[in-house]
Amino acid sequence: MNKISSFDETNDMTDSKITARNVQVYYGDTHAIKDVSINIKPQAVTAFIGPSGCGKSTFLRTINRMNDTIDICRVEGKILIDDEDIYDPKVDPVQLRAKVGMVFQKPNPFPKSIYDNVAYGPRIHGLARNKSELDEIIESSLQKAGLWAEVKDRLHAPGTGLSGGQQQRLCIARAIAVSPEVILMDEPCSALDPIATAKVEELIDELRENYTIVIVTHSMQQAARVSQRTAFFHLGVLVEEGLTQDIFTSPRDKRTEDYITGRFG
Amino acid sequence: MTDVTTNPASETPASRKKTSLLTVDALTRKRNAAETRFKAYGVVAISIGVFFLAALLWAILSNGMSAFQQTVVSLNITIDVARLEAAEKSIVKTSKYNAIIDEALIAKMKDAGVETEMSGKDLRKMLSSGAAATIRDDVLANWDAIKARDGQVMQYDVLASSRVDGYLKGRVTREALARDKNLDAAHLDIVDQLVAKGTMVKSFNWDFILGTDASDNRPEQAGIGASMLGSFYMMLVVLFLALPIGVAASIYLEEFAPKNRFTDLIEVNISNLAAVPSIVFGILGLAVFIQFMHLPQSAPIVGGLVLTLMTLPTIIISTRASLKAVPPSIRDAALGIGASKMQATFHHVLPLAMPGILTGTIIGLAQALGETAPLLLIGMVGFIASNYPDGLADGFFSPNSAMPAQIYEWAKRADPAFYERAWGGIIVLLVFLLTMNILAILLRRRFERRW
Predict the structure, then answer these.
(1) Residue B225 DSSP SS3
(2) Residue A106 and residue B331: Cβ atoms within 8 Å?
(3) Which residues on chain B are in Cβ contact (under 8 Å) with A177?
(4) What is the pTM assigned to this prediction?
(5) Which residue among A3, A30, A136, B388 has the highest number of C-beta atoms inside a 10 angstrom radius?
(6) Beta strands in A130-217 (DSSP E)
């Protein structure tokens, strides 16, 4: 089956940050991701949408090999980042995850100070040679995450004392601090109220300039608001991928159309 | 129509009658009664528990507190260096000291105005049979100072015999002495007079807490201090072996080990080990550490090793439970920014699990501190722990008792005076356990406040 040729012309392989080819993911005997191939553009936001249990989060987690932590999980196929196979035996997932950061569904700051939360990544990767360099990284990360103004006077207060939206932005700052190239976001706003969601979405839009962002979301409105490209997953299969406005206005697949018009899911 | 509007209940199904919220219906009443009964059961259960706890504490305190007081007689002894030197040259050295004590006793009787026909030797029955040795030990320890005080009178507080002590504490009666060859009722008359004069008093018994055990016929001299040190050295062994091994094993099993049949088997076995009777560990220790490895018998090192084996499952289980309780999102967060598994575990998971680990460890230690059965099998009972360990190595390797073993030892001795000491020993042990539990709570609080 020639999957690639079924993609629309806007997505040619030459300009892609992440390239997945025939990816299969198994949880024990369950075939969770079936033969997914996709090209993800650099400096753009790609949204994965689909009903619950369709495998979009699972696929997202294959991109920074977070699935490695699950014993029964097995990944086949190829995922290339900058033409390097991340499942090559020579690849250390630790190095990969410094390059591909992740923001989780529930804000999960470390139970430490705001400063230490952001400083943890640079510290373990040795990104700062001294205290002032570290301070700089922290300030710029918090600024990029739009949190600096709110927390600059209480950097040593516990990160867990922030509001939910602030915590999520702190997690984004923490991910940015190790200067990744790709940021994966797994439903980053599902635990946030509409105002906090709006702030995080705004932030995602700003971050697009410097990072390749992949976001899993349950909310189609959110996908429409923040993403340039959208991929629709259903039952472990990538049904359709393309420019966001195309997916939402003229879906080619019947299943996509049913989903975005609210007929199932 | 009007009928219907005035009686809307007729519109509803027949099964549903109009009810008022102000009257309690039968079902609700039944439910409430059941709840009230259940609460009453709870209160009864707790009351029974509290009652038994109170009874236990009362029994321990009422029987044991008297061990912390001991009757002493103050004697004025004239230092005669020539006589003391002569005593050292004789064969039975303490017998010469006995003569000195006899004289001092008779003099004391005169001072106190007690009329008695008894000889000094007879009077001496009121004192501990270890009195001469106690004075001699003191003299030898301070020989230079004693020599300088030739001819002067020194006051010694000498232990009264356990019968006299028991009389003052209400344990020994005149009737009971009728069949006792160690003391007569006549002695008690003298005791009464000495007590009235203030020559014989009960004072706080530091020797019970700090002293060593004494032989069967000198219960008044027995103390728990040496076995306290024995327990201390055992706890050192347990702490320095069980904590690192237990925590390392738990971290490996919980965070790193692949989940397969072999690790499942290990897991089941650890849980089972926690339920193995402690005497089994004792016989294992006897077979492995003493008979096979030829470690010294009755030594705290062996006791510590056995108790380590016994405590490990407790520590592993509680550590694993507290590691499990750390939310996986913390691990994800650390791994997600490129921490290795070990960094995630040691930087984030372990500090969060620390209060639980510490509590588990201290509870395990407290359990080990009170454990008696394994110590019986490795020979920490059946002898008199009459020496303090001499230095660190000696503390681990020379025979000693431990607090619970010492209590067991006292409880099985014939003289009822030891019975009081067994209860007293239990008080000391409980104080230690209480302290450890408070420590566990404090550490828990302290670590939890940091997050």
Answers:
(1) helix
(2) no
(3) 337
(4) 0.81
(5) B388
(6) 182-186, 212-216
Total residue length of chain B = 451
Query: Is B5 part of the contact surface with chain A (CB cutoff 8 Å)?
Result: no
With 0-12 / 13-18 / 19 or more C-beta atoms within 10 angstroms meaning exposed / middle / buried, residue B192 is middle
Angle value at C-alpha B143, between B140 and B148, nearest 5 degrees: 155
Question: Both B421 and B326 in a single domain?
Answer: yes
d(CA A71, CA A163): 34
Nearest Cα residue to B340 out of A250, A239, A183, A95 = A95
In this complex, do A110 and B338 lie within 8 Å of one another by their Cβ atoms? no
Number of domains in chain B: 2
The verdict on B369 and B426 lying in the same domain is: yes
Q: Note the residue count of chain A.
A: 265
> In whole angstroms, how far apart are CA A67 and each of A59, A71, A95, A99, B283?
9, 8, 15, 16, 47
Residues A27 and A57: their CA atoms lie apart, in Å, by: 13
Q: Is A24 on the interface with B (CB under 8 A)?
A: no
Phi, psi of A34, deg, nearest 5: -115, 105
ipTM of the complex: 0.86
Q: Are B248 and B204 contained in the same domain? A: no
Q: In one letter, which amino acid is B325?
A: A
Distances (CA, A) of B195 to B46, B100, B175, B200: 46, 22, 20, 5
Distance CA A57, CA A119 (A): 27
Shared-domain flag, residues B165 and B260: no
The range of the structural domain enclosing residue B190 comes to 68-208
Q: State pLDDT tens for residues A18-50.
A: 999 999 999 988 999 999 999 999 999 999 999
